[in-house]
Amino acid sequence: MAAASSSQVIENIHEQLICAVCLERFNEPKFLTCLHTFCCQCLHKITNQQPCEVITCPTCREETKIPAEGLSQLKTNFFVNSMLDLVQMKLEEIKKERKKGERCEQCQEQDNATSRCIECDLVLCGGCIADHKRNRVTVDHRVIGMDEEDDDKQSLDKYTLTFCRYHTRNVIKYFCNTCDEAVCRVCTILEHREHQFVYPKEAIPQQKPIIEELLTQTMKHLPVLKGTINDIQSMQGTLKDCRESILSEINAKTQARIDALLLSKTSLVKDLDRVYTAKQKTLGLQSDSVELELGKISGCCMFAENVLKFGNEVEILQIKSRLQQLNNLSIKLDPEEDDSIQYVSENDSMQAVIESLGKISSSQTFASLSYAEGEGLETPRVGIEASIIVHAQNRHGKKNTGSDRVEATMLMPDDTKKTLPASDNDNGTYIINFTPQVSGKHSLHITIKEKPIRGSPFKIVVINRREYNEVGLSLFKFGQYGSKRREFKSPFGVASDVEGFIYVADSYNHRVQTFGPRGEFLNMFGSHGDRKGEFNCPTDVAVSPNNRLVVCDNGNNRVQVFGRSGNFIAKFGREGSKNGNFKSPWGITVSTISREIIVADTDNHRIQIFTSEGKFIMKFGTQGERAGQFNSPCYVSVNPENEHILVSDSKNHRIQIFDRRGKFIQLFGVQGQLDGQFNHPRGLSMDIANNIIVSDMGNHRLQILTYSGKMVKCLGSEGNGDGQLSFPESVAVNPNGYIIVSDLSNNRIQVF
After folding, report:
1. Angle at 545 between CA 544 and CA 546, to 5 degrees
2. % helix / strand / coil in the chain, to the nearest 5?
3. Residue 406 CB-half CA count within 13 A
4. Domain end position, chosen among 462, 491, 521
């Protein structure tokens, strides 16, 4: 009891020795001025995120000045260090005490335990160890002695990493070949049910060469990264030289302007002094003349006053003429010069001088981060103008200014080159317009400052009306029977998106697989069940305009919606005959205009239409043979131009066409093997020329028909050879006009 109490106290103390940033035990604890303590490494991470001269405490937000020598010079919390050592020592003592008293958890006798099984996390006595090793389930378990635990910590750490990341209390015991990942026992029951899995030791011979190859491929990145570092360092040196060169030029031009301004200043001062001296001289001469006249008048006035006082009559009369003479002043009384010296300077002259020095400009555009998009890269057609938008990017993201040197060159199928103009939108984007003249493979090179943007050169396939008379054997095919990647158990529905990715409803594997335009495996999702994201024989898949995958979950009588990566979004529907309910929903499509979801409700012999959120809008059709009636409608397609709905009326062996609200327009086809006749038609799709491609399942062929039902081309025959078909189920057309077929009984996908 005392030991338990002591252990609890030590654990409580240990909890107080946890860093608030990394939530781990303190490592090199450092004080801040607020007296809060953190790991030195954690403080380094904080300053790297916000470089400055101070560091803000993560707890109280008080700022602490960073020493000039760095964070390592902050005061160390020696008390915390001492407590860490003490707690560690006490924990080890308590651990040893516990080991001495541990009893076997396997047998009823509860003998003293001597060993521990790493996988089961059980302590065992000597007798139980032998039983543990004999048991087929636990024969490969790792058992170590109690005394080895401390001496073999690295080995223990190695085995603790083998716990399942999904079911954290379960040890990894198997390797799933289907999903190519290590799993625990619970995984084999839940997520990996019906998958193929083996013991890790059995997987090693096959997986080790693959891992070694991956290691070899990964190591190839090392010289590339080192080369990049060298390039960066070289660029830093070049940038430094560039700065020094420009700085010298700026200093030289600035000094030249200073010298010119000083020279101009000297000239202006000389002119000012010349004008000033001339005006002062004139005013000085005038002042002397006026002072002389003033002296004469003053002396005469004093003399006249004395004469009037003391002179005789004759003297008084004689002074009269002198006064009359002085009264007639002939000098100018106003200053002969004024202060009108003006300094004339243009108001914009200073700005002109500043601008004459030039300015610093630097393009922040990174060609490797810039990208292009638009229909011109996806499905350009002969004779129709296509456009491409180039997005210039700096290292922080989108630019808001233009003036980049964007160049585009198109390499034609005959190897001739054509330069395409790029229009600057002055907001960081550029538009490239072109009108293809010939069909075939083109290569578009787009550069910014003579460096290729991301994805350049772009491989563009310009298409025209598909010439079906040239179609024969398949372009490529992939798949075989099985449950691994790129294997199928009855592939039903197929679909293709605007990028050419291929989606397959792998029905009896209860999943959807995603492939690239050339059939390369990308992703798969789903497993058998009736929960969210699980399937029971999915029969069709469609791609919505917002890149969502809509799947017909046939056995669960519902529709499920996923993201392109397989993340579950929504579901709707249940078994029944009411509005919004289903009985064996088979085919599905999404209108590119209204985004409405259209479902072939096969066993209810009707078509149902839903909003993009799965809300019921309407239904049409009843069981029968008349126009507008159905007998097991299987697949649907939508004309992208007028939203006409095309339905494969399978057991009536015909194709029916309706408007977007279910009004009957036309039908064609009867049961048979001739051109335009069908034997249980299934999947159907349309090409850009409004031709209808029908999967004529019972006749083991594809029929390409005009919109009125006239034969254009027939592809395939019964068999498993190249271009042959065995019960083709579904069909789709990719952006390049190629036909994708789910070759049901051959468990493969063929592309024509």
Report:
1. 90
2. 30, 30, 40
3. 31
4. 462
pLDDT on residue 160? 44
How far apart are alpha carbons 486 and 478 in whole angstroms? 7
Cα separation, 372 vs 377, in Å, equals 8
Same-domain check for residues 191 and 313? no
Q: In sequence order, what are the residues at sequence separation of 6 or more whose Cβ sits closer than 8 angstroms to the Cβ of residue 200?
A: 172, 173, 174, 175, 182
Domain-located, residue 368? no
**Averaging pLDDT over each range in 66-70, 215-219, 375-379, 542-546, which range is the top one?**
542-546
Q: Find all residues with CB under 8 Å of 1, minimum gap 6, and list them.
A: none
| 175 in Cβ contact with 197 (< 8 Å) | yes
Enter the pTM of the model.
0.46
Q: What secondary structure letter does DSSP report for 393?
A: E
CATH number for the domain harbouring residue 128: 3.30.160.60
What six digits make up the tokens of 301?
């006035």
Residues 170 and 25 in one domain: no
Residues 594 and 656 in one domain: yes
- What is the three-state SS of 677-736? CECCEEEEEECCCCCEEEEEHHHCEEEEECCCCCEEEEECCECCCCCCECCEEEEEECCC
Instruction: Please provide residue 601's backbone torsions phi and psi, each rounded to the nearest 5 degrees.
Output: -85, 85
Three-state SS at 296? helix
Q: Looking at the structure, do residues 457 and 472 belong to the same domain, yes or no? A: no
Separation of alpha carbons 352 and 466, rounded Å: 64
Three-state DSSP at 487 gives coil
Q: Which pLDDT score is estimated for 393?
A: 87
Question: For helices 200-219 and 221-310, what crossing angle results, to 10°?
Answer: 40
Q: Which domain holds residue 399?
A: 380-462
740 & 613 share domain: yes
Query: To the nearest 10°, the Cα dihedral for 146, 150, 156, 160?
Result: 90
For 11-53, the pLDDT digits (tens) are: 777 777 888 888 788 888 888 888 888 888 888 877 765 557 8
Separation CA 199–CA 369 (nearest Å): 44
Do 499 and 646 belong together in one domain? yes
Give DSSP secondary structure letters for 129-169: HHHHHHSTTTTT--EEETTHHHHTHHHHHHHHTTB-SSSTT
Q: Is the pLDDT of residue 155 over 60?
A: no
What is the β-pairing status of strands 451-452 and 440-448?
A: antiparallel
Residues 297 and 446 both lie in one domain: no
Do 450 and 502 sit in the same domain of this protein? Answer: no
pLDDT digits (tens, 9 = 90+) for 412-435: 888 888 999 998 888 888 999 988
What average pLDDT score do residues 692-706 get?
92
In order of 390, 688, 733, the CA distances from 380 in angstroms are 16, 12, 16
Judge whether 109 lies within some domain: no
Q: Kindly calculate the radius of gyration of the chain based on its CA atoms and give it in whole angstroms.
A: 47
Cβ 586 vs Cβ 573: under 8 Å? no
Question: Last residue of some domain: 437, 462, 487?
Answer: 462
How far is it, in rounded angstroms, from Cα 142 to Cα 150? 16
Per-residue pLDDT, 157: 42
Q: For tokens 């910590």, what's the residue?
A: 153
Count of CB atoms within 10 A of residue 233's CB? 10
CB atoms within 10 A of CB 234: 10
Average confidence (pLDDT) over 451-460: 89
Tokens of 140: 């490969």
Count how many domains the chain has.
5
- What is the spatial distance between Cα 708 and Cα 710, in angstroms, rounded to a whole number? 6
